Amino acid sequence: MTQGNGTAPPSLRRTLLIWLLAPLVGLVPLTAALIYLLARSPALDALDRALTGTTVALAEIIEFKDGQVTLPLSPQTARALSADVVDETVFAVKSPEGRLLGGSFDLAALAPPVRVDEWHFQQAWLTGKPVRLAVHGAACGAQKAQVCIIVVAETLGKRNAAQRAALLAAGVGAAVLALPLVLFSMLAIRRTLRPLRRAVADVESLMPHRLAPIDAQGMPQEVLGFVHALNRLLARLHEAAAAQRAFVADAAHQLRTPLSVMRVETAQALATPHSPDLHPVLERLHAGAERGSRLAQQLLALARAEGAALDPGLKAQRLDLAALVAGMAERWLRPALEAGQDLGFELQPAWVEGHAMLLEEAIGNLIDNAISHAGAGTSITVRTETREGRSWLSVEDDGRGVPQDNLDALWQRFRRGRDASSPGSGLGLAIVADIARLHGAEAKIEPSAHGQRGMRVLLMFPFAAAVPS
């Protein structure tokens, strides 16, 4: 859906996601960096403490004899101090005068000056390799102020592995934090918007004949006022529709009596001797009274159909369409004979859930429509059957028919076929359509099976199981 200017309307879901998840974009990397630093620092400190152990061991070996500082270190001890599974370890010990007492000359050259008991750690390069230096000043010689500098260097294998492990821990920790937050945010938004989606579905299901209020249970407080306002609007619409139907029904009811009197009086006037000059006038008056009486009756039927659609207390019954048609058959035989038509019935059980009064009105309108418009010398067949899992009711004739492009217009109120010659109100099929819609049936108008002649009106109801005998 787009707005009038062609842009998409703002999405509440998208807005909530942005406001909830946008902070994570900054917080998650910050959290990952914090986890990395917290995991990396103690790991590197532990490795530095391992270097200090080697340095302290070398300090214990230094001796002062005959005025000379020496490092009596055997090859086996030197190999033991340099042994490591992962890294290469190198050491160097310098006398207070700067003389190399033992170890690597290149490493000794890297040692900065330090005081007694002072420690110093730094990164450096030794023979083309990055190393970690631990430098310690140990008291030696005749005077305590004399300092022997001890340097231990180790390649960075374990340190790099420790940093990779800390980085991995930071990434996993951030993911473990971010993913549940994202999922919980989406779930919270989904659950929060669920009542709104239900309300949208309820509003979309509203029909002119069904203006039920929207269920406000579970609605967020922020939209509860809108739902209540919408329900009040629906109530006003329901009252207005009810008032309109009541007016139509009352007007039609009030018109029926004078129209019936006029119809009887004009019929009697036509049956008694009268001036030939008055005969056309009386015929027109009688036809008008007949048409008005029929229109009033159909308006009442329309009001009843719409009232039934809006009345939740009106319960449907399980009915057999064949029985309904059979009960009405005799009523229509005489009009068909007077019109010179052959009215036949092919009735098989066809059970539906519905309202007998409205279904009888629909059946009567279909038969009356066929008798009125099929023409003399035609055949009309009323069928009921169960087919394709539905209950079918059809009224078919082999009369003049209706042009294909004019079929859909027949369902509209006060619309008649272009070639209609007999009198009518244009309400019969519209009432049938309303009653079919109320019963969940599909209504169709299609050409008859008699080639180019005739028309068939078909109602297809949801099937209902037969009432047990």
Automatic annotation (TrEMBL):
Domain (HAMP): residue spans on this chain = 190-242
Q: What EC number(s) is this enzyme filed under? A: 2.7.13.3
What range does the record give for the signal peptide?
Answer: none
Tell me which residues make up the Histidine kinase domain: 250-465
Q: Which SMART domains match?
A: HATPase_c, HisKA
Q: Where in the cell is it found?
A: Membrane
Membrane-spanning intervals of the chain = 16-39, 165-189
Record's keyword terms, sorted: Kinase, Membrane, Phosphoprotein, Transferase, Transmembrane, Transmembrane helix, Two-component regulatory system
What InterPro entries does the annotation carry? 2CSK_N, HAMP_dom, HATPase_C_sf, HATPase_dom, His_kinase_dom, HisK_dim/P_dom, HisK_dim/P_sf, Sig_transdc_His_kin-like_C
**Catalysed reaction, written as an equation:** ATP + protein L-histidine = ADP + protein N-phospho-L-histidine
Q: Which domain of life is it from?
A: Bacteria
Specify the protein name: histidine kinase
Q: Which organism is it from?
A: Ideonella azotifigens
